Amino acid sequence: MKSELLFMKQEDVIAAGVLDMKKILELVEKVFYLQGHGQIINPPKTVFGIPIGEEPQSHFFSMPVYIGGDINRPGTKWAAESRANAKIGNLPMGIDMVILSDPVTVQPVAIMDGMVITAMRTAAAAGVAAKYLAPKDAQVAGCVGAGVIGRTMIMALREVAPSLKQIKLCDLNLEKAQNLANEFKDEIEVIPTNSVEEAVTGADIVATMTTSKKPFVKSDWIKKGSMIIQMSSCEVEGGVVEKTEKIVVDSWDQMKENDLSIINQMVQQGKIAEADIWSLSDIVCGNKPGRENNDEITMFSSRGMGAHDIIIGDYLYKEAVKKGLGQKLTLWDEALWV
Length: 338
Ligand SMILES: NC(=O)c1ccc[n+]([C@@H]2O[C@H](COP(=O)([O-])OP(=O)(O)OC[C@H]3O[C@@H](n4cnc5c(N)ncnc54)[C@H](O)[C@@H]3O)[C@@H](O)[C@H]2O)c1
Prior knowledge:
Ornithine cyclodeaminase; NAD(P)-bd_dom_sf; 8-stranded mixed beta sheet; ODC_N; ODC_Mu_crystall; 8-stranded parallel beta sheet
């Protein structure tokens, strides 16, 4: 029996609706809900780096997942990040593929570009966290990093924090911040800067999404009652974490495998207790409270969950089938040795 699957290039993924941030937020929140109800199998990702010279120049991540409930979809994301691409700038820093399988026959049903899915779901996880943990009347966001996630973070924050009036956006490359300011000029005021202090000081929501391997956000710049979102591992210094009343993560199982994570390092050093790190799924499911007052400082940090990619991939695949998008590929006409 012939085995066919749908191949979706990036343009098909976009035509199927991946840029609809409202929908992506809904799907990502559903994963946190299902995770809290034991319906997600999402083992820690496997990662390796390929060294060229002293340090790894590229990293590869394998992220297998099963989503239960009414989704019932196994799949995996094969993700990769390249320092060379980040330096040269003619290819994306992160390049990802999403593969979906049939839960019963285990045949692959779809393979699609996962780059835009990754960008959207990463910011959406932060957006879901902000829905529960950001100050209710947030006016100003201080964002650091005007790359791929910098763009989707603005999309997510605008959706979940409609009270936002201004975004101060810092990047080492000021031109990238200026370009994003221009891109969003009809939607929200974005003020480009190359000073992290200027971007972060006094902000109601601070969000970092850079490729920096060293902390650069100082605790003195964090105001009472704000929310901090850290998308990479160690962009905020330890003092920021110590100042935080609620430390919330997407998946502690994933984060504790990451030696670069500032939260993980502080747990290892005994500066914070593992029990004080909450899972966002507990808040989404109502087992733990979100923001409780105007004064507390909250923090969300993520390592990234394949389950977010797979639930979005599943949705986009179904939309593609409805809209006639993508290209059918044949895995075999008649399988050998059946
Ligand atoms: N947690 C997750 O699920 C997840 C998923 C995807 C990416 N990420 C992480 O998010 C980060 C951003 O990814 P991206 O795809 O947007 O990368 P990108 O290369 O598109 O953008 C990164 C930006 O950060 C800027 N930058 C680097 N160091 C800086 C500093 N010290 N101060 C100010 N700006 C600085 C760069 O100039 C660049 O514009 C990466 O660390 C990536 O690993 C996390």
